[in-house]
């Protein structure tokens, strides 16, 4: 039975109340409220929420990674882990929007939609029922369709919103189709009961069960940006307001992975399928296509979008080898947390550059290191961390992912190739990240320093501390990941 | 008998969906969409779910489709539409749809689905309501938040920025 003080319910109460009240306040004040007024309220709500999640962990009110429960939600360490990652991203987005939204209309609705979408993201990770998961998925998605098109007079923002909406609606429809088949086969929407039903399924229904898992992969794969479901992603990330791109790249994408771990992986394990090769192939394709396409980009936001596709491939390595190595799922979760901060920081830096200098073309970044030194430093550190350069945090999560692939080699003879592909792709990514750094620090001579947005500086400082400190001393975060990651093995039943 | 009704409903639903996409006139397209939504209500009736069918008609055919119709009539057409047609993409889309239809159809028909027979009574709508207030209650709250977010988001997107509040009041 869900307690009223359980983390997901308290998050719904805090963020839902503030999210609904903000537009009402705006109407009561006859829209005279400043951007920062609403931003501060949203920021405070997010800080209280993340504080409550941390408090629940510290006071040990959180269950071990349960994955299944009799209710629609479970207050477990797995959900708590993702809640922390999503809330960090939401805080980045809110703080990054302080400056971005200064001259824009409707700030109250903007921050309200960020909060509502955050509830959806967090609840996806806590869901143990397919209906609950789908409703949370929609709550996460619908506000972001509006947010992507928030700059109504900007044609690229409109294009981004429309593409994102069409593909998002398609992915939702595919997920519902998967849910309907699994409900038809097992008579339940509870994930634990569905998986139990799958493990005792009549063999003649196996193709239908496979079809439902395939539909889940396709549906969640759209949000995760897996190849071949990634077509919408670069245009949307480029055209949407940059803080919202942060929310999409670092937040909603991770919710897709949380849902994938809850359903796809466990469903496949319950069906005793040899699915690892299929996921391994998708992982290699995703990271390779993402990185090769990133090299060819001239626009910074677009390059980071393709790099984001590449990172989805790295994360998928861990999921592919999950039944044969505990390091696999741990590496995936570790990289999800790290990627949320690294990519979040990179996109917020891009947002700061856009609002200050109105440039995103790589050729126009010459001398950026002198013009915006703190933003540039934050961007460089996040790019190095994304490439997996030691001693930054990205190095350890990639090491764990590739180590997981090697660890699984006793059961899967081809698994080391995943690690090799990952290392080669990391080297490839260093090439285009290095190109950005060269432009920023080694080209352009006469540029003068400009005033950097304080909110962007705040995000840069926090993320630099996170990336460097947890790179030099990763023990606490590794222990946290080990505690939050579920045990997945062949033949698992609830 | 049920098979014939199912086939007829399928033709109506898919046919009017294609018409909604292909018709040049937005008004006729919207009316065709009503046919699709009404066809889906027919499927619900066929599946012994009169309650859901009633809501499908009341909400989708009665409200949403009529709303779309009014919106189309009130908005200047040239502002929202620019005709771009790429025949290769169209045929590629049709081809992909056929591949998916054949693929999904063969998987479903090859499975043991035809052997399923059920004589269970239709789910009472009171049970659906009771479930939403007991087991699914957090989902019900999230649905309220989805509606709140959708309404405020739609209002902001639809609002004309070049008209001041005073003009709007007048």
Explain how this protein is built:
- The complex is a heterodimer of chains A (494) and B (170).
- Chain A is mainly alpha-helical and 494 residues long.
- Chain A has a domain at 275-494.
- Helix content of chain A is 75%, strand content 0%.
- In chain A, helix 10 (242-270) runs antiparallel to helix 13 (326-357).
- The model of chain A is unreliable at 490-494 (pLDDT under 50).
- Chain B is mainly alpha-helical and 170 residues long.
- Chain B has 2 domains: 1-85, Four Helix Bundle (Hemerythrin (Met), subunit A); 125-161.
- Chain B has 8 helices and no strands.
- In chain B, helix 1 packs antiparallel against helix 2 and helix 2 (26-46) runs antiparallel to helix 3 (50-74).
- At the A-B interface, helix 1, helix 4, helix 5 and helix 8 of A face helix 5 and helix 7 of B.
Please sum up the structure shown.
The complex is a heterodimer of chains A (494) and B (170). By secondary structure, chain A is mainly α.
């Amino acid at each position: 039975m869900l307690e009223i003080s359980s983390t997901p319910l308290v998050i719904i109460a805090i963020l839902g109340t503030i999210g609904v009240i903000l537009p009402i306040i705006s109407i009561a004040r006859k829209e005279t409220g400043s951007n920062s007024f609403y931003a501060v309220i949203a920021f405070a709500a997010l800080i209280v929420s993340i504080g409550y999640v941390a408090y629940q962990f510290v006071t040990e009110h959180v269950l071990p990674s349960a994955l299944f429960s009799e209710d629609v939600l479970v207050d477990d360490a797995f959900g708590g882990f993702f809640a922390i990652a999503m809330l960090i991203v939401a805080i980045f987005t809110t703080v990054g929007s302080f400056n971005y939204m200064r001259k824009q209309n409707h700030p109250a609705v903007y921050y309200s939609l960020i909060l509502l979408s955050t509830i959806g993201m967090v609840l996806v990770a806590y869901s143990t029922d397919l209906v609950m998961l789908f409703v949370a998925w929609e709550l996460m998605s619908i506000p972001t369709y509006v947010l992507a098109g928030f700059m109504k007079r900007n044609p690229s923002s409109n294009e981004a919103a429309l593409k994102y909406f069409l593909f998002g609606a398609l992915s939702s429809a595919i997920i519902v189709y998967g849910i309907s088949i699994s409900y038809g086969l097992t008579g339940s929407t509870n994930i634990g009961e569905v998986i139990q039903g799958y493990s005792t399924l009549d063999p003649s229904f196996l193709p239908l069960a496979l079809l439902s898992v395939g539909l889940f992969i396709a549906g969640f794969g759209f949000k995760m940006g897996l190849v071949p479901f990634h077509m919408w992603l670069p245009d949307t990330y480029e055209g949407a307001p940059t803080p919202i791109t942060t929310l999409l790249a670092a937040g909603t994408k991770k919710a897709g992975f949380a849902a994938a771990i809850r359903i796809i992986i466990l469903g496949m394990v319950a069906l005793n399928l040899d699915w690892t090769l299929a996921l391994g192939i998708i992982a290699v394709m995703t990271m390779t296509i993402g990185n090769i396409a990133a090299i060819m980009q001239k626009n910074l936001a677009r390059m980071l979008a393709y790099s984001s596709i590449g990172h989805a491939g790295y994360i998928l390595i861990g999921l592919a080898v999950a039944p044969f190595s505990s390091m696999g799922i741990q590496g995936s979760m570790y990289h999800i947390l790290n990627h949320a901060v690294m990519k979040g920081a990179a996109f917020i830096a891009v947002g700061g550059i856009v609002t200050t200098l109105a440039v995103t073309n790589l050729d126009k970044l010459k001398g950026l290191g002198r013009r915006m030194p703190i933003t540039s430093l934050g961007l460089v550190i996040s790019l190095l961390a994304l490439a997996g350069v030691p001693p930054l945090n990205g190095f350890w999560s990639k090491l764990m992912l590739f180590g997981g692939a090697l660890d699984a080699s006793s059961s899967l003879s081809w698994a080391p190739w995943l690690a090799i592909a990952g290392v080669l792709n990391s080297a490839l990514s260093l090439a285009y990240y290095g190109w950005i750094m060269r432009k920023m620090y080694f080209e352009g001579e006469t540029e003068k320093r400009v005033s950097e947005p304080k909110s962007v500086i705040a995000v840069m400082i926090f993320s630099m501390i996170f990336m460097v400190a947890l790179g030099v001393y990763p023990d606490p975060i590794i222990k946290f990941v080990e505690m939050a990651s579920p045990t997945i093995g062949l033949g698992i039943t609830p | 008998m049920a098979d014939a009704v199912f086939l007829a409903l399928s033709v109506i639903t898919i046919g009017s969906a294609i018409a909604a996409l292909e018709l040049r006139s937005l008004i006729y397209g919207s009316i065709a969409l009503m046919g699709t939504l009404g066809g889906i209500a027919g499927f619900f009736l066929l599946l012994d779910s009169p309650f859901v069918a009633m809501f499908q008609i009341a909400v989708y055919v009665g409200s949403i489709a009529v709303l779309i119709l009014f919106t189309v009539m009130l908005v200047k057409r040239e502002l929202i539409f620019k005709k771009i047609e790429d025949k290769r993409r169209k045929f590629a889309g049709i081809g992909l749809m056929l591949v998916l239809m054949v693929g999904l159809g063969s998987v479903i028909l090859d499975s043991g689905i035809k052997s399923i027979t059920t004589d269970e009574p239709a789910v009472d709508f009171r049970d659906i309501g009771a479930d939403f207030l007991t087991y699914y209650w957090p989902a019900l709250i999230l649905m309220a938040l989805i509606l709140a977010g959708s309404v405020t988001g739609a209002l902001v997107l639809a609002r004309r920025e070049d008209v001041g509040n005073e003009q709007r009041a007048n």
